[in-house]
Known about the structure:
Helix content is 20%, strand content 49%. With 176 residues, the protein is α+β, with helices and mostly antiparallel strands. The protein has two domains: 1-37; 39-175, Calycin beta-barrel core domain (Lipocalin), CATH 2.40.128.
Amino acid sequence: xxxxxxxxxxxxxxxxxxxxxxxxxxxxxxxxxxxxxxxxxxxxxxxxxxxxxxxxxxxxxxxxxxxxxxxxxxxxxxxxxxxxxxxxxxxxxxxxxxxxxxxxxxxxxxxxxxxxxxxxxxxxxxxxxxxxxxxxxxxxxxxxxxxxxxxxxxxxxxxxxxxxxxxxxxxxxxxx
Length: 176
């Protein structure tokens, strides 16, 4: 009888441990699946890769490594410019809002936040920041998927409420 009780306790313990690990494994796989199977999370995948970046006149501007992280939910950018300027961005589709978000930081203390959408084959972001005199600066950031696997990034700013726009950065990304 004692032997049957011990065997029963061992079987219950094995069952509980197996159930725990099964539930944990299922929870982990379910936490990652939405980003992998939802088409909205994959809209910006055309930017993933290792890139050489050139200006419109063909000058080398820098290089960028774009990769998927955090269970394929976040597109992480690591940019290094030819002059020593560098920055990183985190890009994610926010299922709660139905919008893309980008958070950019650089080695000069710059921080920018954008919100956007994928439309007509382009990733379009917009955001605003404050200038040195407290004035509002509006930003537009557009990524164009080009032929031959290239990507163009166009960053524009307006200091007059969007009446006029100036190009801050225009880069053509070519795979390394």
